[in-house]
Amino acid sequence: MRDQFETVIGLEVHVELATSSKIFCSCSTKFGQKVNTQVCPVCMGMPGALPVLNKKVVDYAMAIGLATNCEITKNSRFDRKNYFYPDNPQNYQISQLYFPIARNGYIEIELEDQKKRIGIHEMHMEEDAGKLIHDEWEDASLVDYNRSGVPLVEIVSEPDLSSPEEVVAYLETLRRTIQYLGASDCKLQEGSMRVDVNLSVKKLGSKELGTRTEMKNLNSFKAIKRAIIEERNRQIEVLEDGKQVVQETRRWDDNKETSYAMRSKEEAQDYRYFPDPDLVPLLISDEWIDQIQKSQPELRGDKKKRYIEEYKLPEYDADILTQSKKMADIFEETLQWCRQPKKVSNWLMVETFRLLKENNMEPEDIRFSPENLGKLINLTLDGGINNTVAKEVFEEVFYKNIDPEAYVQENGLKAIDDTEALKEVIQKILQDNPKSVEDFKGGKEKAFGFLVGQTMKVMKGKANPTLVNQILREIL
């Protein structure tokens, strides 16, 4: 029966911008500092303290708007959204309701070689609230106001999404775009990207939308997928039981894989919006928009195309490398030390991604320098070390960012280039393996690989593989 229902999803994505100071004061936005050490009368909501707009916030907001095909609102302004909550020091939030910074945009997502355009209804700037810290031992909640006043953009999509897979594709595309712009690191685990899911179900083919609920507390793509599936099933069960879905805000508990009602959903009038009297209207000129447009960096689509054309990389390599701006940056910087695009790509896509996966890390967590990766690849290309040793050395580069050239020298790992010594070893191996010699002369190339392996085994992996191959073929 559940295939008789359609899912309709819209997203509200809150992104903390990468400014050094807050949106309306000069307090630092640095993450993870001692509680209540990055506050002042403005972000603490003290009487008489006046906000002053941070221009960099507007620059970033416009950059995101332009990159997501939005129209920039030339006559924009800020409004007060009034509500009481312990982590909201002013008892109102400065936001944008009537004239948001950007509107009517879209993002194109791709799933199984099919493209779909997801509309962006609007994008507005606002200030973040503080953070409640729940002390279970004392049975109390404390407030850290360091986050209060950190600049946000809220990106509101149209209800164009219909599955968990589409939602994740949209969020990944949006996050990548913002990271490429340098406007935010978009770390869900640190709260610099937060997602609210508005979801409803309706009968298949019906034009009338169902009653929606909003789910909060979603801090990973996996949690978002699980929450969508669970809420869809919950709403269908309610309807199949002959009941009505209640419009409400629900909190997702990822450990229990269930959501529960927090409060009935508010309407805009409940917040008593009105223009903020302390902030003048924001007038954006064509010159300002043009300046932001010209300063936009190369985004993922253009970069991927360039990698294929300029570096002759396979489309698969270009697709993987450009999924993360950090990985793309490492690739390009490594090329300054090693002019072998495909070799660099292979080391990033195989060994680097292997260690990232083993350590549950993201590309943004990489700490080794591209110079050291380039040096390591050059060592393998010059025959200074073989691939087995190179993989061992790379682990030291990955974890400790050591200089591979110095490490190889200090640990006696350099490949042995003594031709006469290698000839003696190879002659002995050929004498001990007459069947393999016979197989090779009979046209079995695998026998050659076996003899190379035996040589490397005797030399404890330190022989120059290029030289081993050359000598072995000459003698055979």
Please give a structural write-up.
The protein is α+β, with helices and mostly antiparallel strands. It is 39% helix and 21% strand. It has helices at residues 55-67, 164-181, 221-240, 286-294, 300-310, 315-321, 325-334, 341-358, 370-381, 387-400, 404-410, 419-432, 434-441, 445-458, 465-475, and strands spanning 5-16, 71-72, 75-76, 79-82, 92-95, 102-111, 114-127, 131-135, 140-144, 151-157, 193-203, 213-218, 248-253, 258-264, 274-275, 282-283. A nine-stranded mixed sheet has the order 2-6-7-10-1-11-12-13-14. A three-stranded antiparallel sheet has the order 5-4-15, with no helix packed on it. It has a two-stranded antiparallel sheet with strand order 3-16. Helix 5 crosses helix 6 (315-321). The model has no long low-confidence stretch (mean pLDDT 91). Belongs to the GatB/GatE family. GatB subfamily.
Task: List its salient traits.
Arc Repressor Mutant, subunit A, 9-stranded mixed beta sheet, 15 helices
Distance separating the two termini: 71 Å
Helix content: 25-40%
**Can you count the beta strands?**
16
Total count of helical runs of at least 4 residues: 15
Could you tell me the strand content as a percent range?
15-25%
> Rg, please?
29 Å
Number of domains: 3
Mean pLDDT: 91
Q: What does the largest sheet look like?
A: 9 strands, mixed
Runs in which pLDDT lies below 50 for 5 or more consecutive residues are: none
Looking across the biggest beta sheet, what order are the strands in?
2-6-7-10-1-11-12-13-14
Task: Please state the structural category.
Answer: alpha+beta
Shape: elongated
Subunit structure: Heterotrimer of A, B and C subunits.
Enzyme class: ligase
Keywords: ATP-binding, Ligase, Nucleotide-binding, Protein biosynthesis
EC number: 6.3.5.-
